[in-house]
Amino acid sequence: MSETVFSLKLMLKKIMHKFAQVTFEVMYDRIIEDIENSRAKETQLILYHTYRSLLNREITNLPTFNEVGFRCHSQFEEDGILLYLFAILGTTNRKCVEICAGNGKECNTANLILNHGWWGYLFDGNEANVSTGKKFFQQSRDTWLHPPQFCHAWINAENINDVILGSGVEGDVDLLSLDIDGMDYWVWKAIDCIKPRIVVCEVQNVIDPNHALTIPYDPNFKISIPDYHSASLAAMTKLANQKGYRLVGTNKYGFNAFYVLNGLGEAYIPTIDPTQCQQDPYSLKARAERWPKVKDQNWMEV
User: Fold this and answer.
1) Same domain, yes or no, for 131 and 2?
2) Residue 52 belongs to what domain range?
3) Residue 190 has pLDDT above 80, yes or no
4) Does residue 207 register a pLDDT over 80?
5) How many structural domains are present in the chain?
6) Confidence (pLDDT) at 32
7) Domain ends where: 43, 61, 79?
8) How far apart are CA 117 and CA 44, in angstroms?
9) In the chain, pLDDT over 90 holds for what percent of residues?
10) What is the mean pLDDT of residues 126-130?
11) Are residues 286 and 140 in the same domain?
């Protein structure tokens, strides 16, 4: 927290204590939210233009994923990685699609939508999440005038293209985020109505990155066995390669993978092999302790 924000918090708390009125509590929350959001935007814009400056100066020793990650609205450090990738690789229409966005407050596209003026198309299978998310963006000073599309739908391979098209987006988009905790491999395989430049998707880090495994397709799948869901990094990377994308890294815990469209920024963002990822302590522990519990389930090699 900055010294300015801290000082203003103390000042506002003193005002609240003096008057002891609910209206001041509401005012306090709103003002602090505005201050912190403004600080987040300011800091991120500085970072963004710093990355662009490195690119324009043809600096070859660019930062690594481990050096750029931070969390603003993402669950982990995906916000920082995405900001970095788009600073280096550029944007076209700033459209983002997120499949299974939860309530929108904590997801991979919220930071881009709220702090960088992106146009969002969000989907979730939980109606309460969608209702909460709609209110969240409608009440935000950054999106109230034109909040992102937020649609309720149970996603599967058969309906994914119709669901996306029904929200009003098709063709080229800058970002697709996919985190279904189930049929991720099969849903991405089915998507052909949009062409994202960058894809971030969840992968299963309990599986060795040498093994291309996924769960078999089931349009009604729900998790009943912990860790028996989704697909391995190798499986998703094979699919990515077939669809014209290359792996450029994962988050620090190895379960969110980032893919870039072929022909885009190879000189700045190198392609890596799945075996170069998921060597962090968390992933190694997951493979040692949790993989034995699910290795005999019905995994499918792709």
Assistant:
1) no
2) 1-61
3) yes
4) yes
5) 2
6) 46
7) 61
8) 13
9) 78
10) 97
11) yes
Q: Is 74 found in the same domain as 53?
A: no
CB 53 within 8 A of CB 88: no
Candidate from 34-43, 69-78, 258-267 with smallest mean pLDDT: 34-43
In a shared domain, residues 53 and 98: no
- Give this prediction's pTM: 0.88
pLDDT of residue 38: 64
Q: Is 55 exposed, middle or buried (0-12, 13-18, 19+ CB in 10 A)?
A: middle
Same domain, 244 and 108: yes
Q: What is the pLDDT of residues 2-37, one digit of tens each?
A: 554 555 455 445 544 544 444 444 544 554 455 456
> Which of 39, 61, 83 marks a domain boundary?
61
Residue located via tokens 């649609």: 151
* CATH number of the domain residue 204 falls in: 3.40.50.150
Instruction: Tokens 């009604």: give the residue.
Output: 220
In angstroms, rounded to a whole number, what is the distance separating the alpha carbons of residues 204 and 283? 10
Residue 175 phi, psi dihedral angles, 5° rounding: -145, 135
